[in-house]
Amino acid sequence: NFTPNAFVEEIVAEMKEKIGNDKVVLGLSGGVDSTVAAVLLNKAIGSNLYCIFVNNGLLRKNEFQSVLDQYKGMGLNVKGVDASQRFYDALAGLDDPEAKRKAIGNAFIEVFDDEAHQLTDVKYLGQGTIYPDVIESVSATGGPSATIKSHHNVGGLPDFMKLKIVEPLRMLFKDEVRRVGATLGIDPELLGRHPFPGPGLAIRILGDITPEKVAILQEVDAIFINGLKEHGLYDKVWQAGAILLPVNSVGVMGDERTYEKVVALRAVESTDGMTADWVHLPYEFLMKTSNEIINKVKGVNRVVYDISSKPPATIEWE
Ligand code: XMP
């Protein structure tokens, strides 16, 4: 019988006591965990909390600006850093999934370290680690907030990693985090967002990454996700997204033969991401979505739906 109100009161008092007048830096991801952690810390220490939200160029369409605006509306002291080019440079020519993850993790650490460096007298690093992350912190892919942890051993330790850690959510499960977020008045839409992997669209573009491919996938993904919302399906799905496949297929448009990209749509039901079933989305919805994608997104002439469950497939394709 977890009571969000009591938790908020206790943890805010505890953080106040622990942190005192010191400064905390925290990386926001746009996701539920880091956002709730930031709002709690903001309640405890106000403007001594410095948030950094990095655009890695691999977010969903318009996500950087809209989430940044949302954060500012919540009174958070947040700096948006557009580092897209740095991530594209780091990814150039890489097509191995793990090499891509590593490049993204390293670029993130560099960007975050540069930014944290510009702040003086910071004592703490805030993190949105939740209980399952604590248990799983040794897993290969890592949980949504595990990006920093899984790259601990890469190169010398960046300055921000020498900071002391504060993790207000480390004893909570995801549903408890959502309830705490609701108590704090965080927008239900933000709290209900599907999980999104740290490496973002980079692991949904099979093979090497270019800004052009990202732009195509952002359009496809936006049509799919907005469609799910419009048809009242978004909240029935645990996670959904589109995958840009590294193959071209023949199509026909007017009297012209086309030879263009294939995208796969994926929507799964799950409770924790460890196992997952593909969702039986209505045929009508799939038909409308496929038509809209093919008509509107230049460079795509075929849409397929992924009907694999986990295991043996995974949720992501990379
Ligand atoms: P898989 O593909 O392993 O995904 O079935 C399970 C859950 O984890 C997410 N995922 C990641 N999250 N960094 C992350 O932060 C990653 O490298 C990563 N890989 C997979 C995936 O989106 C799903 O929610």
Descriptive report:
- Helices cover 39% and strands 20% of the residues.
- It is built from ten helices and nine strands.
- Strands 3-2-1-4-5 form a five-stranded parallel beta sheet, with helices on both faces. Strands 6, 7, 8 and 9 form a four-stranded mixed beta sheet that branches.
- A hairpin with a 2-residue loop joins strand 6 and strand 7.
- The two termini are 38 Å apart.
- Residues 138-154 have low confidence and may be disordered.
- Bound molecules: xanthosine-5'-monophosphate.
- Xanthosine-5'-monophosphate binds at residues 101, 141-142, 144, 147, 195, 197-199, 239, 273, 310, 314-316.
- Keywords: ATP-binding, Glutamine amidotransferase, GMP biosynthesis, Ligase, Nucleotide-binding, Purine biosynthesis.
- ATP binds at residues 29-35.
Q: What's a quick, concise take on this entry?
A:
The protein is α/β, with parallel strands linked by helices and 318 residues long. The chain folds into 2 domains: 188 residues, Rossmann fold (3-Layer(aba) Sandwich), CATH 3.40.50.620; 102 residues, 2-Layer Sandwich (GMP Synthetase, Chain A, domain 3).
